[in-house]
Every structure is written in structure tokens, then in C-alpha cells.
């Protein structure tokens, strides 16, 4: 069972109106929205891949994050909230796995954002909701829940898109960190 991945209706209904992205961010993403594969796992984009120069994306905020293998995506390096860092209930439900990059294949990035930031990112064309985001029976099957705010950021196509993606990942980190 998959959810509708482009709708922001569920985020608009949220009583949580906080945002960690600036009012005018992210800017509209150039070009058309990407064609995605038909399956929610693995959720992969089918076009507009990055060049070699942008395939290594690193976000460093050493005081609250650490890098290790993702629990949400096998064979992917992920950013986790460190064990000693207070985490929101959403971060805890996702085992503190905050973000990871599909390092083989499309190089798309997964993040969990506030409902308002989900709307901004989707409306600006930078990403979409994961097909299993908020699906309750996923926890029974996988042992963890994907927040309804869990989404895919389309892969970077060029160096100019790095800063916007880093800003979105930083908004995710700020949202999931309690402190």
C-alpha cells in the first residue's frame, strides 16, 4: 500500500506550523518534476542524475550528528542524531536515522521535515513524500515507522543545487533535534 506522494494536504492539516526553512526557501527548482519508479521501496528517480562532482554530499554538524550505515536503507551512509542528543518523538520512531543519500544509483536524499517545510519543499519542486510515509503497518513489517513527513529530495544535478539541498537537510536536523 502506497500513499499519494505529491499531495501536501496532510501537512496542511497539521497543527504544527513551525518551519526551519526561511520564508523564501527553497527557491523553485528549475525544470520539470522528476519521473519516479513505480514502487515505494526502493523509491528511485529515473532521470536527471548528478554529475561526478556533486555525488559526494556531506553535512557536518559534529556536535549532534554522527555518520554510520542507515537502518532505513541498506548499504547507505546516513546521518544519525548522536545517542547523547535529545531527539524528537519522530526521530526516535525512525531510530534517529535522520537522512541518507542513495549512494548507488540516483543519489537522491531522504529527510524528515516539519509539515510546513514539507509543503515548501514539495511546492518548490525539490522533492516529494515517500510512498510509505505514515503507513502504519510498515512498523509491523519493518520494526520502525516512517513518519508521514518522510520524503525524498531529488538528486543534485549540479553544484548550484548543493546549497539548497544542504539548507533542507539542516532544516531536517533542526526539526528532529530537541534542544
Automatic annotation (TrEMBL):
Residues 1-42 are annotated as: Disordered. Residues 99-172 form the Luciferase domain. Coiled coil: none annotated. It comes from the Eukaryota. Residues 1-12 have a biased composition (Polar residues). This is Luciferase domain-containing protein. It comes from Letharia lupina.
